[in-house]
Design brief:
This protein is mostly helical. It contains 17 helices and no strands. The chain has one domain. Helix 7 runs antiparallel to helix 9 and helix 11 crosses helix 16.
């Protein structure tokens, strides 16, 4: 048998293993950059740089882990007690109305960006239309009662509160409609993330036609939550490592110096939101510190784009969506919030 034939017969590494190796490689690269920055004389000793990096990593992870746990518990409850028939009754048949419904589902499943991914994946397994899930994924970190209260406490009932929720709804619904009109579930989701009725493998995610009894359902929900927490937790750890490394390497003073221009300020705040990876339940208080230094349009971009996409959520997206789709889920909200922020800076006086 020829060597090239033998090569083709060798089993290739599964995609999730390749993804895991790539993610850990990126995390190692960030760590190497941290060490290099200390070695080249960044003004801080090696021990100080490592201490800053460790503190920021633990801060991001400890802040996010409870919300990921909440999301996996909600996911387990959905798996045990929500049936495909429930989804069929709750979601309108019209793609437009279904997408709008997805934007407000966060008030039923109040999870932030740290916990929304496992909830969306479980809803896909229950038959939720793909584009509705995409809309929910982008909107729920903002469109939920916890974030509504925190934003109100930070900014009051003013233009920032209204603008944050209005812009989030517009962006999420628009992206959801793009997926409704131009994509199929098989092209968007990894096989583990959608139900057999939409082309998935029932060897991976079984559908339960009937609601489980309460006792058995609760036991299965907790077991499912534990398994999913550790499965999605590795993406959270890697994302937290990357975010902490970027916070350590990128000087925030450099970003703050860019806060005056109508366009540059929006880009700077989007970059800051992506790098800092602050949970949406508390990011309003961080954004409040930038008022007066940055334009209002850029603050709204920070409050809208950051909960939709940041370093840690991007890594978790890769566990549900195909890599090309993850790129779309980053670029589309980025461009839409950028355009909205610049337009607000140029045309609206706050």
């Amino acid at each position: 048998m020829h060597a090239d034939t033998d090569h083709h017969l060798l089993p290739s590494a599964p995609p999730h293993r390749l993804l895991r190796r790539l993610a850990w490689g990126l995390a190692a690269a960030v760590g190497a950059l941290v060490v290099l920055s200390a070695t080249l004389g960044s003004g801080e000793s090696f021990e100080t740089v490592i201490s800053i990096f460790s503190t920021r990593f633990l801060g991001i992870f400890i802040e996010a882990a409870p919300f990921l746990l909440l999301g996996t518990v909600v996911s387990g409850v959905i798996d045990s007690f929500l049936t495909p028939d429930d989804i069929a009754r709750l979601v309108p048949r019209s793609p437009l109305l279904a997408t709008v419904t997805g934007a407000f589902m966060g008030f039923v499943f109040p999870v932030c960006e740290c916990g929304v991914v496992p909830v969306v994946r479980r809803l896909f397994g229950k038959g939720l239309p793909m584009w509705v899930g995409v809309t929910f994924l982008l909107a729920a970190p903002v469109m939920n009662p916890i974030v509504l209260v925190s934003t109100y406490v930070a900014f009051g009932a003013g233009p920032v509160l209204v603008g944050r929720f209005a812009l989030t709804a517009v962006v999420a619904i628009s992206v959801g409609l793009v997926f409704a009109l131009g994509a199929r579930p098989q092209e968007v989701l990894r096989p583990r993330s959608f139900a057999p009725i939409t082309g998935g493998s029932d060897d991976v995610i079984p559908l339960y036609p009937a609601r489980k009894p309460l006792g058995r359902g609760l036991r299965d929900a907790l077991r499912q939550a534990g398994d999913e927490f550790f499965e999605m937790g590795r993406y959270l750890v890697i994302g937290s490592l990357l975010a902490a490394g970027m916070q350590t390497l990128v000087s925030q003073e450099v970003l703050l110096a860019l806060g005056r221009g109508p366009a540059v300020s929006v880009i700077a705040m989007q970059a800051l939101a992506f790098l800092l990876s602050v949970c949406s339940t508390v990011d309003a208080f961080l954004a409040l510190a930038f008022v007066g230094t940055f334009t209002t349009g850029s603050v709204l971009a920070f409050l809208t784009f950051g909960p939709m996409v940041d370093v840690k959520s991007t890594l978790m997206f890769l566990g549900v969506f195909r890599p090309r789709i993850v790129a779309y889920l980053i670029v589309l909200p980025l461009l839409m919030t950028l355009l909205a922020g610049v337009w607000l800076n140029l045309n609206v006086a706050f």
